[in-house]
Amino acid sequence: AGDGDVTNALMRAQLELQDDPEKAVATLDAIDMKKVPAMMLNEVRGMKAQVYLVKNRVAEASELADQIQLSQIQQVEVRSVMAATVAEAWARTGKVKQAGDILSLFSPDDPAFASARVPLLYARIFTHFADSKRDLARKDMVVMCKENFQYLGRFMMPNSGVRPELVQMAQDVIQRDDNARKSILEMQAGAGKLNRAQRRSQR
């Protein structure tokens, strides 16, 4: 596979991930890693690991994370997103200390990594939770919820492999946030109006 073929596959997978994660997985699985240009290996491994984490293929994501060379990635934005992927994969497969070491270098609170703030927060939540620091995990969830409560939907996706305690924590944080509750009620009311309008149009 040439650079263009791999780049096209990565771009297609990113688009597919929004609507059909299974299709994104298939697109990435079809990439022959032996034919990927050396300069693109870290990018391909990182993208595959991101998708695998969402689809609860955490062991495979961790194997890929082990092979990602962060020091070889020149762009700060890309390197920090990759760092988040590596840290989350390691935190979810028992490598808590290694995940913490990564996050000590790539903190979501550091303005230098603003473009990767959300994935770094996900990684830190998983790391704190795996390290039995539930209060710190919850604190980061509250921060995410205030920025956009829909970020916490990542913890409640079906078949995501997220531990039930972490799912419950995300639900509780949303329920305790006034703005999140208000937004959910507005969304439900809007959906109800749409359904009623559709029923009327079918009469």
Describe this structure in words.
- The protein is an all-alpha fold and 203 residues long.
- It has ten helices and no strands.
- The protein has helices at 3-19, 21-29, 41-54, 58-67, 76-91, 96-105, 117-130, 134-147, 164-176, 178-202.
- α1 (3-19) runs antiparallel to α2, α5 (76-91) runs parallel beside α7 (117-130) and α8 packs across α9 (164-176).
- The N and C termini lie far apart (54 Å).
- The mean pLDDT is 89.
- SS-based structural class? mainly alpha
What is the helix content?
55-70%
Detail the poorly predicted runs.
none
Percent of residues in beta strands:
under 5%
How does the major sheet shape up?
Answer: none
Helix and strand topology:
Blueprint: H1 3-19, H2 21-29, H3 41-54, H4 58-67, H5 76-91, H6 96-105, H7 117-130, H8 134-147, H9 164-176, H10 178-202
Helix pairs in contact: 1-2, 2-3, 3-4, 3-5, 4-5, 5-6, 5-7, 6-7, 7-8, 8-9
Short summary of the structure?
This protein has 203 residues and is mainly α. The chain is 70% helix and 0% strand.
Attribute tags:
203 residues, mainly alpha, 10 helices, 70% helix, 0% strand
